[in-house]
Amino acid sequence: MKWPDLKSWISRSPVAEHAEFRLRHPVPAEPSEFSSALFQSVGTKMQAGHRVELLANGTVFDRLEQEIGKARTSVSIVMYIWEEGRAADRIVAALLERAAAGVRCRLVIDALGSADFPKVLGPRLTSGGCEVRMFRPSLTTARLSRNHRKLVIVDGAVVITGGFGIRDCWLGDGCQPGAWRDTSVVFSGPSVEHAHQAFAENWQEAGGELLSAREFQEPDATGPTTAAFVSSTASPSVTKAERLTQLLIGAATRRLWIVNAYFVPSEPILEQLAARAAAGVDVRILVAGHQSDSKTAFGYQQLTYGALIERGVQVWEYQPCMLHAKTMVIDDRLSVVGSINLDPLSLNTLDEVAFVMDDVAIASQLERSFVADCGRAERQT
Question: Residues near 71 by Cβ (< 8 Å), separated by ≥ 6?
Fold first, then answer.
């Protein structure tokens, strides 16, 4: 089997040379054993007691306004893209209303992804009582080590994360040109503490103070979903994003359905996907089509199709608009929603997050979304 020369993509990025990681042994699918495998790989265990709701496309803004509007003590945000427009006006208004009521509103905004933020939106927020810090503003020394996380944490009790940014292209239904297709998730439960820690480390690096211990409250753990929150940072060897991705692929015994915006994975991941399909796993990959906002990534992802299809992987390209979601469904219970793209940047140099869920109902909901999206996609042959 011949894979495309992914090093040429890396050299164009340009991403620093990284050590290659390969998960060489079987991954247990049984829930308690998988939780142990997850802990050994990324330092986080699956925990019971979460309440989870999936958010499709522009509905994420309705929920953001709702949750921010209920804040009583704090709103903590990490965002890669935040631009002027109707989406920004909605979230800025919600934050200013809460800040005026005495709620601590803290924002960490990536300096590359939101280059105009300090001039255009930052002053409105800071003058209204919000605290804004730019993440790694010195682009000459940290140009590619960016913060690609999307996190909104309210009162240390509720988290919204996924693939969204604060930009008008995320407002629509994901079925029309210019209205990006994406998936996000809102959750409460034990994993909120881990998401809050991810915010805290970014807040500290951007110059913020240590959060009070009172902000890490005892979580409500009465929900029906078992889940884990995983954060990843750049590494000269191997990131948690790469480890997590390989672990999830390895856990599939019957089904592995992947939705990803920028599909240019490492060679070990490509080999893993082909091996899972050759072993009889139903492997399907839904990726951005010709409306991708990255023609370079689109071109390189097309080079991966042939060898995958030869081994039985089904590949689909989404047609109506830019597909920006990053989700997985593994067998009948396990699923993932997050910010991790399967490309050299996400897998090596970006700060990322993922929410892993063990819940039949959530997996079934993502399955239905996948089938519906494939009805608006073209299968590659």
Answer: 98, 103, 154, 155
pTM of the model: 0.95
The amino acid that residue 171 corresponds to is L
Q: Which of 170, 21, 202 is nearest to 81 (CA)?
A: 170
Extents of the domains making up the chain: 6-379
136: its two tokens: 């790694």
Backbone angles phi, psi at 355, to 5 degrees: -115, 115
- In 3D, which of 6, 24, 11 has the Cα closest to residue 267? 6
Q: Under a CB-based contact definition with an 8 Å cutoff, are residues 46 and 34 in contact?
A: yes
The stretch 119-124 carries a mean pLDDT of 98
Distance CA 314, CA 231 (A): 29
pLDDT at 14 over 50: no
Contacts of 112 (CB under 8 A, 6+ apart): 136, 139, 143, 146
**pLDDT of residue 50 exceeding 60:** yes
Residues in the chain: 381
pLDDT confidence band for 237 (50 / 70 / 90): confident
Taking each helix axis from N to C end, the angle separating 240-251 and 267-278, rounded to the nearest 10 degrees, works out to 10
The answer to whether 347 and 266 have CB atoms below 8 angstroms apart is yes
DSSP state, residue 206: T
**CA distance linking residue 354 with residue 181, whole number of Å:** 18
151 touches 121 (CB < 8 A) = no
Half-sphere exposure of 29 (CA within 13 A, CB side): 14
In sign, the C-alpha dihedral spanning 191, 193, 196, 200 is: negative
* Closest C-alpha to 362, from 217, 147, 138, 183: 183
Give me the chain's average pLDDT, please: 94
Return the percentage of the chain with pLDDT > 90, whole number: 91
- Tokens representing 260 are 């990803």
Element (H, E) at 282: strand 282-288
Residue whose tokens read 């308690």: 32
User: What is the residue-wise DSSP string for 152-170?
Assistant: EEETTTEEEEES--BSGGG
Pick one of 3.30.420.10, 3.40.30.10, 1.20.272.10, 3.30.870.10 as the CATH number of 6-379.
Answer: 3.30.870.10
Helix (H) or strand (E) segment spanning residue 276:
helix 267-278
Pairing mode, if any, of strands 74-79 and 104-110?
parallel
Q: What are the two backbone dihedrals, phi and then psi, of residue 123, each rounded to the nearest 5 degrees?
A: -60, -35
